[in-house]
Amino acid sequence: TMENKYPCHRPAADEFRTGKINLDKTLKLLIKLNIPFDYVHVKYVFKKTSNQPKTGTITIEEFRAIYRTLAHRTEIHELFCSYSPNRKILPEINLIEFLRKEQFVIDAAEAIASELIAKYEPIEEVQRKKQMSFEGFLRYMNSKDCLIYKREHTIVYQNMSHPLRDYFISSSHNTYLISDQLIGPSHLWGYSSALMKGCRCLEIDCWDGPQNDPIVYHGHTLTSKITFRTVIEVIDKYAFVVSDYPLVLSLENHCSPKQQEVMADYLETILGDKLLTTIIGDTFPTDLPSPEALKFKILVKNKKVGTLEETVLRRGLDSHGEIGEFVEEVEQSEDDEADESTPVLPKSPQLKRRNAVKRSPPPPRKKRKVKKVKLAMELSELVIYTKAEKFKSFEHSRANQKFYEMNSIGETKARKLAKQTANEFVLHTAKFITRIYPKGTRATSSNYNPQEFWNVGCQMVALNFQTPGLQMELQNGKFMDNGCCGYLLKPEFMRGSTTQFNPYNVTGNHNPVTLSIRLISGYQLPPSNLSRTNKADPLVQIEIHGVPEDQVKQQTCVIKSNALCPRWNETFTFNIQVPELALVRFSVEDQISLAANEFLGQYTLPLMCMNKGYRHVPLFSKLGDRLDPASLFVYIWYY
Ligand SMILES: *[C@@H]1O[C@H](CO)[C@@H](O)[C@H](O)[C@H]1NC(C)=O
Ligand SMILES: *[C@@H]1O[C@H](CO)[C@@H](O)[C@H](O)[C@H]1NC(C)=O
Ligand SMILES: *[C@@H]1O[C@H](CO)[C@@H](O)[C@H](O)[C@H]1NC(C)=O
Ligand SMILES: *[C@@H]1O[C@H](CO)[C@@H](O)[C@H](O)[C@H]1NC(C)=O
Fold it and tell me: What atom in ligand 1 is closest to the CA of residue 162?
């Protein structure tokens, strides 16, 4: 009979020796049997199953019913039966056929099949016969071996020996803030948590502090202050925990030369050998070094007096107490704040808060002014490969910019350039590192969509890491690739000085892909916030984020009142022109009304990291926590 297939028979008997069991014991037994469960679902399945809801206990038969409800996935059982000659046992030869036909295993299917039987078949007798029971098959389908995400991409697999500018680099903006930009507290936690997410470019906003000790906070605003020294100490501690590849400290420097000197001292004494203080190699370079060559190094990005050549020539000379000066022409529109974005607070913070919400952006006004920049030479000399240079135009950069100079461009201006002169932008980023930052009017730390700047090859698309939402989901999904190391090699067609790539006109070139996703079912989805039981009316949106032509969203129908095991069995097909830049996002929502959905969970990954075949899709909450065992079950193929 069916019952005999479940090995829970034997261990369960023990638990029921003294009669019935309660919910608590039921949970413990499920853990013992290795059944992933969500407490809310089990609680309601238990209530529904128990014949004596008053005593709150169940019999062994009732336990088996609960077990079946949670573990017996009909859709997986159907799949099992379609390859099992007797609908009970899957002989190795049929498993091999399944792997070849459905899971796109090309090589060594025999060896993999026997490995899977050894790994997942719990009944010894069946394992010895080189077969798989449904129980074993279920374990395999729920395992890491059936994740949608390619295992090969969970380690660093890309060539890390290209110049730095050939990579997308995980970058954060206003790293120290954890909530609101105007009143939110500055916490060191922001730095460590960004580093733990693989971020490789941190922004540090530095100001003169009391007792000649520089402080870090968001200029002119009420965010609390922390000293520059403690920030560098935290960075020293967490810099290379998650990634070996170089870390860039993007200094937002508002300090007097006197305190800049103190900053330089802290950088040198606290970071020690980690700090990059001179060029790599014996001869003067003509190009940026690679992430590989800069492993375990921390680079300072700041303005710099003079050239890198001059720094190299001065090497070994004491620059203590010297101040360098240069003049910078600033042309700015109202929307693109001075160098970086800093909302300026008038006297009364209350007033500003109200204004920040109400103010509609004024029409951009051009003003020109000349700014004198004073730099402590000690700090200036620490800037090697990442000299901050004011962006004027692509033309100006082509004629004047050095390989070690990089630009920061505000999102509004960058968006305009991307729309009007996309290929020129791609040519610029193929040559120089370009950083994009959010406009200063984003007082609530909201984020812009990073995709449109990745589309033109911008390396550092800085986001507020503390602000959850679609934008950070795209960021986290993209940088999961290449072992979460924070560096992704740009696709070949975006590299090199002659690239003709234009994200707004992608016809004719590249390797378009047809992607099909059969969304089969959901499993233990997070119940709706609004439901007092374990219910929701779930639907799934599948979105493609990439070049404009690839941007598309499709949606399943709504399954009423079932978050435990909704079944859709709907197929979606996408024609994707530039698969190398495409991200796929699954968003699970609860339909509250015809006009409103409640977010339940999501998963985002690069198309090129997707496995084919029957796979499960893990889900993450708005705050980025994994919602195990909540998942989607899908069948994927593309060519
Ligand atoms: C990695 O890239 C470097 C720089 O382009 C190149 O010289 C090298 O041959 C590449 N290595 C591999 C294994 O492709
Ligand atoms: C798109 O690029 C192709 C060549 O790659 C060109 O023939 C065509 O005119 C371009 N279309 C537009 C709208 O620019
Ligand atoms: C659940 O509802 C509460 C109150 O309505 C709300 O604050 C919270 O954000 C909701 N959670 C989710 C995940 O939507
Ligand atoms: C699911 O859809 C596929 C084709 O899209 C079909 O062959 C199959 O029979 C469907 N399964 C169920 C259970 O409806």
Answer: 4
